[in-house]
Specification:
It contains eight helices and ten strands. It is an alpha/beta fold. The protein has a single domain (2-222), classed as Rossmann fold, CATH 3.40.50.300. The strands form two sheets. A six-stranded mixed β-sheet has the order 6-7-8-3-9-10, with helices on both faces. A hairpin with a 2-residue loop joins strand 1 (2-13) and strand 2. Helix 5 (116-129) crosses helix 6. The longest helix has 18 residues, at 175-192. The protein starts with a strand and ends with a strand.
């Protein structure tokens, strides 16, 4: 699914290299994996996740998504890639406050030009999977944190991306909601066949995944 070769990323201050954020990263993620990028804050896990998701550029090296090189695309090409092939779940739920739950879940599909009837069918299908079908007409502001995160996951899954990237998805949840979320993500991974890659240092997430990729100071130290 994903192959990364000799990836390097620097953060610059003026013309000087300030931080070597990713150091010669080489990594393969297979289709259907349920895996985690782990490590202490500042180790590079979110930077690597953002590079894989075409949110950030890199300074050298290559990233392949199903044999397509994606690390040196134009901004427009990266936008289309994110829209059509990659789903995101962030620590902040990033729901559109003026849209109800159904509209938030179907938002990406609407941008893709999917017909209204297909969107409606898929929204209901995913909402049932995540047990929020009774909240479809509610606004995000009326939901609990756990419910909002479920909506964010539903939005990421609804368009059937090739991979979902989840950055600290349990950070704003209590232990009960965190456990429920991970169980649901695991179920979606199995039922939908979607590859899921987390970035987190939450022990609950670490104990829930099948593979842990440990980073330290911008380098992979174990997998």
């Amino acid at each position: 699914m994903i192959e990364i070769k000799n990836l390097n990323k620097y953060f610059f201050k003026g013309e000087e290299r300030e931080i070597h954020a990713l150091k010669n990263i080489n990594l393969e993620i297979q289709k259907g994996e349920f895996s985690l990028l782990s490590g202490a804050s500042g180790c590079g896990k979110t930077t690597l996740l953002n590079a894989i998701g075409a949110l950030d550029s890199v300074d050298s090296g290559e990233i392949y998504l199903e044999d397509k090189e994606i690390s040196h695309l134009s901004e427009e090409q990266r936008t289309q890639l994110r829209l059509r092939e990659i789903g995101f779940v962030f620590q902040a739920y990033n729901l559109v406050p003026v849209l109800n739950v159904a509209e938030n879940i179907g938002f990406i599909m609407k941008l893709q030009g999917v017909s209204a009837d297909k969107i409606e069918h898929r929204v209901v299908e995913v909402a049932k999977m995540l047990e929020i079908e009774n909240k479809l007409h509610s606004l995000p502001s009326t939901l609990s944190g756990g419910q909002q995160q479920r909506v964010a996951v539903a939005r990421a899954v609804a368009s059937k991306p090739k991979i979902i990237l989840a950055d600290e998805p349990t950070a704003n949840l209590d232990s009960t909601n965190s456990q429920t979320l991970m169980e649901m993500m695991h179920s979606l991974n199995e039922k939908e066949g979607i590859t899921i890659l987390f970035a987190s240092h939450d022990e609950l997430v670490i104990n829930s995944v099948r593979r842990v990729i440990q980073l330290s100071d911008g380098a992979i130290v174990s997998s």
